[in-house]
Amino acid sequence: MHPDLISLGFLHIKTYGAFMALGFLAAWQVLAWMCRRTGRNPEPCTNLIMLMMISGVVGARIAYVVEHWATEFAEHPEMIVRVDKGGLMFYGGLILAIAVFFVWCRVKREKILPMADLFAVVIPLGHAFGRVGCFFYGCCFGRLSNASCAVSFPRGSPAWHEQLNAGLIAADARAALPVLPTQLFEAVSVFILFSALLALHRRFWKERPGFVTGCYMIGYACIRYGIEVLRGDPRANVGNFTISQAISLALILLGSAFILVAFRRGKL
Questions:
Q1: What number is the average pLDDT over the span 22-41?
Q2: Domain around 51
Q3: CA angle at residue 34 from 28 to 37, to 5 degrees?
């Protein structure tokens, strides 16, 4: 855990925010390259990815605040705007970013499926960087574990506070009990997903518009559903599922619909 990347007098740069910025820059550069490769002007896509990044952060924060209102924000509402302290729910950001995407395409009269395929490739790349930032901040941690890959976050970390409140450690404990580094599990998984989607886009971007988007939805939904089983931080439930698992199941159905449309409509 290393929440502060740079702390020199008045200069404070959070590791979490720095990795989010790196993820955005990496996604932006790959998106611009893909636009040029497919004969598309990258400037409109650059404007759109900026809008989606901003809306994604806002949506992710809103979803996190709603999910953790009673435990974190009811008594300290002033903390709602402290995004630098961590606390983003990816699905909330994805939903709002998708809404902005559809509005933008409608206003600019862009074809939705080819544009969606471009963004479906780069979203998991930016997401991978974001999850590394989560690891350095200590949020989104996994279950207690004695596995060789388990990590012990230091005193004051989210895992330490959660275990203290649960009576698992004493107030003078210097570190939390070992937990699974689910942040890194997800970071590696979504980077592999990015690599696979990039290869699929090179093959199907013209023949099957919408196919890559469907593959992203199904691929990430499966990853997230599995990661949720390993998570140890508090999350709200919908019946027998966490909120993220319930959304993942819906995303699998939506992704399947995209793939069906892609193969029915065929080439552009």
A1: 93
A2: 4-142+149-265
A3: 145
